[in-house]
Amino acid sequence: MVMIVFVSIAPPDVYLYARPDGDHLKLICMASGFYPTESYLTIMRDGMLLDHTDGLQSTKVRPNEDRTHQIKKWIKIDKTDMVPYTCDVNHPATIHIIQTWGDSEKNLVSPSPPEGMEKDSHLLQEQC
């Protein structure tokens, strides 16, 4: 028996949020629900691209139960750091999705992904 599954192109949902992590905050950018797997996610601090030498960590693109995909990148930052951080996601279903975190008008801890997403997510079950 051959099973054919059609999955149309799906844009990512993008979340940029922070969680307390000891004396720091863990700033997390997550893109989820996208198809196909080709996706490019970057985090910038005040316009400067961050990479592993800055402490940026990442998961690989991982599958969701609905055959879409997700990826997450994170970096530890000082709790008093109010410089703007930007998460930029480029995917074939969209041109760019940009989320910004960290101006003087915002709270230190931003909203997380919708309730239940972390519990059901393969990606978020990993320690980060």
From TrEMBL:
Residue span, Ig-like domain = 12-110
Q: Could you tell me where the Basic and acidic residues compositional bias lies?
A: 116-128
- The yes or no answer to whether the keyword Glycoprotein is present is yes
- Please provide the record's keywords in A-Z order: Glycoprotein
Q: List, in alphabetical order, the GO biological process terms annotated in this UniProt record.
A: immune response
**Is Cell membrane a UniProt keyword of this protein?**
no
InterPro entries noted in UniProt: Ig-like_dom, Ig-like_dom_sf, Ig-like_fold, Ig_C1-set, MHC_class-I_related
Stretch list, region Disordered: 106-128
Q: Listed GO cellular component terms?
A: external side of plasma membrane; extracellular space
| Protein name per Swiss-Prot or TrEMBL | Ig-like domain-containing protein
Native source organism of the sequence: Muraenolepis orangiensis (Patagonian moray cod)
